[in-house]
Automatic annotation (TrEMBL):
PANTHER family: PROTEIN TOLB (PTHR36842:SF1), PROTEIN TOLB HOMOLOG (PTHR36842). It holds the Pfam family PD40. Belongs to the TolB family. Transmembrane segments: none annotated. Coiled coil: none annotated. This is TolB protein. InterPro entries: 6-blade_b-propeller_TolB-like, WD40.
Length: 330
């Protein structure tokens, strides 16, 4: 049964002085389990949700794709869903005995890219077409193929792969599969995400210190990358459509940075080492939490946070599983 809950923002924002390498960056292992820092139980808002009533149409009419996981090890079952931001119309997209990673919408919200990893196989990238309800395998090279991102015109796809040995970033032309390698460093370069103008992308690299990632911005015109200043461990970047905000994992907190000022809003320790992701209008952020926001509900939740109103609400998992990797599309 679908449940939606409204939360007040009251998260622990204490500085964490020592942070170990997280799975979203290492790509090959399950995420560390952390305690949730939610301090108040939400109010049940199943019948009425004032936050979604005030949402811009570009947000409210969009869909959030996310993954629910159940079981452990060889018994792991991963299910990919999409849902409306008000918690309605939850739809199953894919399911397998194994792992589903990092869904990403195309700019028009009609295509979804994601990685699947069945038992004893490497992660492969698939495309789901909403109109035809079809799924097609597009990246099946040896290695870990993860973190797809559509170009703004929908004609290309960025992704990371270990096909060359260490993790690097590649760009594929979807019309014919032509692929070029963009990074060639001996370090780990992962989690690429296009800027809305298509002239650059942000990504994660540990080229300065192994196991200690930072966020960089790669310029297509110059083929050079510049560091985006952050405090300590930073990974899983996503730029807002207007280019003014950056959602990312700040240490172990889901966070949003205003790029012009460097001001950081830490939303929560999610309990999953998961980043925040921005709505199309960039007025809201979504992130998962490991535990349900009500004691009577098993499993995780999606939390949607208003960046201007400093209020939140939660959508409970469908199956009582762990919720991961939400992404908000049009």
């Amino acid at each position: 049964m679908l449940k939606i809950f409204v939360l007040k923002s009251s998260f622990d924002i204490r500085t964490i002085s020592s942070i170990t390498a997280i799975t979203a960056f290492s790509l090959l292992m399950g995420c560390q389990t952390l305690p949730s820092t939610m301090s108040k139980m939400p109010t049940d808002m199943s019948a009425s949700n004032p936050l979604t009533a005030r949402m811009p149409a570009i947000d409210g009419q969009g869909r959030i794709a996310y993954v629910e996981e159940q079981g452990f090890g060889a018994a792991k079952i991963s299910t990919l869903y999409s849902i409306r931001p008000d918690g309605s119309d939850r739809q199953l997209i894919d399911q397998l005995n194994g792992y589903i990673y990092a869904p990403a919408w195309s700019a028009d919200g009609q295509m979804l890219a994601y990685s699947k990893q069945a038992a004893r196989q490497h992660p492969k990238i698939y495309l789901y077409d909403r109109k035809s309800n079809t799924k097609n395998l597009i990246v099946d090279v040896e290695g870990s193929n993860l973190s797809a991102s559509f170009s703004p015109d929908g004609k290309k796809l960025l992704y990371s792969s270990t096909v060359g040995g260490n993790a690097d970033i590649y760009e594929m032309r979807l019309s014919d599969g032509n692929t070029r390698q963009l990074t060639t460093l001996p370090s780990t370069e992962v989690q690429p995400s296009y800027a809305a103008d298509g002239q650059s992308f942000v990504y994660t690299s540990d080229k300065v210190r192994a196991g200690r990632p930072s966020i960089y911005r790669y310029n297509f015109a110059t083929s050079n990358a510049a560091l985006i200043p952050t405090a300590g461990y930073a990974a899983s970047p996503q730029l807002s459509l207007d280019g003014q905000r950056l959602a990312y994992l700040n240490g172990r907190k889901a966070a949003v940075m205003t790029l012009a000022t460097g001001q950081v809003l830490n939303l929560a320790e999610t309990g999953l080492d998961e980043p925040a992701r921005l709505s199309p209008s960039a007025q809201y952020a979504v992130y998962p939490t490991k535990l349900s926001q009500v004691s009577s509900q098993n499993g995780g939740s999606l939390v949607i946070h208003s960046l201007s109103g400093n209020t939140s609400y939660a959508i409970s998992s469908k199956t009582g599983g762990v919720v991961r990797s939400p992404i908000w599309g049009r």
